[in-house]
Amino acid sequence: MDAFSSFFDPRSRSNWSYDTLKNFRQISPVVQTHLKRVYLTLCCALIASAVGAYLHLLWNIGGYLTTFAGFGTIIWLLSSPPYQEQKRVSLLMTSAVFEGASIGPLIDLAIQIDPSVLIAAFVGTALAFACFSGAAMLARRREYLYLGGLLSSGVSILLWLHFAASIFGGSTAFFMIEIYFGLLVFVGYMVVDTQDIIEKAHLGDLDYVKHALTLFTDFVAVFVRILIIMLKNSAEKSEKKKKRRSD
Known about the structure:
With 247 residues, the chain is mainly α. It contains eleven helices and no strands.
């Protein structure tokens, strides 16, 4: 909990300066090069997922089939040896296309309700990702890795909540609690996974494809939840406007 409290501690923030922002001496040049490859691969995966979402808008291909295909591709990627670099990059891009097609119905709904919400959700996710990943890079090594156990417990709670809702049924309020709690968990994973990638790279694990996959999963999980929250708020505003007009 000390690591979590220090993240929001004003005294620790007051120690930051412009020199602190330029201080990457904790990260060796080899690790910095590795991070560049990770984030470049992540950007390519996001573009591939956008292509997958566009394919859904054209041919309505998103659904359970693309979801299972995405899981299968990820398992294939993780089971492939690291030296098969070109194959693993292709598998990552393929899984990103399937992931984009899987969330295509949600994106289609956002376009029908308010296209600006889609752009705002992506920009908000990108800003959150940049801020929390940057904070993880600038923090002391391994400072936030201890949050991993707490976040894993949060994922377990999410699974149990989803399981209970599927059996007993759930209200809209219960669904939104699950969404907000999941958003908090996966934002935390942005910090923990970034530090975990840096630490593994220092120890010699330079598998940039697997690390890009980890960050891609975090990004999509946060994006979907932010988009759902913004869509609900937009729908509520439109309903209020209709009621005012009818009155």
